[in-house]
Amino acid sequence: MTLYQSLFVIGLLIAASAFFSVSEISLAASRRLRLRQMADDGNAHAERVLRVQEQPGDYFTVVQIGQNAVAILGGIVGEGALSPHFTAFLELWLAAPTAQTLGFLSSFLVVTSLFILFSDLFPKRLGMATPEILAIRVAQPMAVCMMLMRPLVWFYSRWADALFRLFGLSSLRDDRITSDDILAMMEAGAVAGVLAVREQQVITNVFELDTRTVGSAMSPRDRIAFFLRDDLDSVIRLRIAAEPFSTYPVCEGDIDHVVGYVDAKDLFQRVLNNQPISLADDSLVRKVLVVPDRLTLSEVLEQFRQVHEDFAVIVNEYSMVVGVVTLNDVMSTVMGDLVSPFDEELIVRRDENSWLIDGATPIEDVLRTLGLDHLPHDEEYETLAGFLMVMLRRVPRRTDSVTWGGYKFEVLDVDSYRIDQVMVSRLTGGVAGAAVAAA
């Protein structure tokens, strides 16, 4: 062959190698969700690519046969076509043996560089940029190649399958999508500007419903406004005025003996109609939903759906009331301040390195705010107050502090053993260990 014929053949081989490179990377990088959407829109080639992704063995066998065959032919043709010309040129200044060696090396370097650039780097970057479109375009030509190379494909595929069985490996692609995958996609979408930060946070909160217990969203026992069954009309009216809520538990004797609940709308209706209020009236007191304190928020939502209620009393393993929760409480956990923007914030940022945090704040919100992965003994508590109690091994007092993970947690206010405010400060230098300071 002449020099021009050899260069033409090398060009064809580079084009063939680029085709196989694009075929390989586009299939591997194609997203099944995107392909499924294209197939549902009537794209038959997308359906073919989906089937190939389920059993990609024969497809990749053809790719490897093609790439290796082209690489060997490229070396043979390139060496025979370019080496003599490089050798003749170098012999003008060098001895013949040296010129021959350098001519071969120059030919090898040029041909290899051309293959790396035009049959590997460029096509693979292109395939990563638009994988689904390219996978669909090469689907039909690759099907023809698979048919033409069927005997070779069968031979090499059987040997590859035998190796997988020998090492106990699976050759099937695992396309199961986990919650972590979805959250990672949402985070990438937020970084790219496709999702607003609040939208990303809402989606993250939805997935946390399966891990957050009901205690992270409830109104605790000491904040419950309730009525006793034998409360007088005047007492009920005063309680409504002093503590306006939408729902009130009704108890027999004390708060741990809840017999039902009364809706504020029913009470207001009686007030407006100048009717006396008596909680002994069974038509006024509704049956209450009682749930254990170990349920997750998603389980509480399911209970609300089953009984068509939006209010529940939460009890512990000793049948003591520990709090109440409403549908709005659960949704506020998901939506944040989009649902109740006028409620007092549990976490207030004072400056770049300090926060004021309510002791009842769920520990998940504290971790997210501070950028921490975990806190020690996190299986033993659900709130910031619980973290301080576990670390101090007693009920905290004012000025007690805990240092962990580069932050100092200092108790600012305690009301009847309840931790109201905690000052969290970022320490310069990031102390990694834990330290406890008692008042």
TrEMBL record:
| Nucleus is among the record's keywords | no
Domain CNNM transmembrane: from-to ranges: 1-199
> Which superkingdom is the protein from?
Bacteria
Span of domain CBS? 284-344
Q: Which GO terms describe its cellular component?
A: plasma membrane
Give the bilayer topology: Multi-pass membrane protein
Coiled-coil portions: none
Q: Name one Pfam family in it.
A: CorC_HlyC
Where in the cell?
Cell inner membrane
Looking up SMART domains in the UniProt record yields:
CorC_HlyC (SM01091)
What is a single molecular function from GO for this protein? flavin adenine dinucleotide binding
Keyword annotations: CBS domain, Cell inner membrane, Cell membrane, Membrane, Repeat, Transmembrane, Transmembrane helix, Transport
> What's this protein's family per the entry?
Belongs to the UPF0053 family. PaeA subfamily.
Reported function = Involved in cadaverine and putrescine tolerance in stationary phase. May facilitate the efflux of both cadaverine and putrescine from the cytoplasm, reducing potentially toxic levels under certain stress conditions.
- This chain's protein is named Polyamine export protein
Species this chain originates from: Polaromonas naphthalenivorans (strain CJ2)
